[in-house]
Give the backbone structure.
Amino acid sequence: MVEKINLAAKLALLDTAYEPGIVGYLNDYKLQVVKVKGPFVWHKHDETDDFFLVIRGRLTIHLRDRDIDLEPGELYVVPRGVEHCPDAAEETEVLLIEPNATVNTGDAGGDMTTEPRML
Amino acid sequence: MVEKINLAAKLALLDTAYEPGIVGYLNDYKLQVVKVKGPFVWHKHDETDDFFLVIRGRLTIHLRDRDIDLEPGELYVVPRGVEHCPDAAEETEVLLIEPNATVNTGDAGGDMTTEPRML
């Protein structure tokens, strides 16, 4: 049976920045929450757009030519193939939606690559 | 150029309940905002799940066997093929995500069937 999802309660289960947790699915898309603090890694997803909605805090998505600054209730969809680097000065909470097969670090790989856990 | 989306600002452009507006796209999914007041129509989507996130107010999604009550920051994904009827006692604002081809009234049709406009 599918239950409702309280995003703040799910985010409270996360200890560490950049360790995403899956809270549900929309068809073949994973609904993830993640805490952001400090810069992530520059990367891109050639096969998919990438949805970010800020729940708490303030998120900057660096693009190569500009920054996207998001407050709670603001969202941004990074187009497929566009290099981006999420960043936050203070701990920030985000809802992230992307296809199930999407790797968090995209084409970049490296130490920050991780599989989301089910929350 | 893709811009950020402030959900409250987009919702302020809507006058009428159950007239959804498109605020962006995630691949072949439409990101819509909609105001809910009073009961919608019972319907189902056999081809897709249906994502609801409450931005403001309080949403009840009636299912045939129970109600899902959602507050701001809470989301629910109605599984494909499951009959549901959104409802709200007071005007409520929602982010709705579903494939581009999805019809708002699903299999039910009728007077509340509408095409979303671009906001």
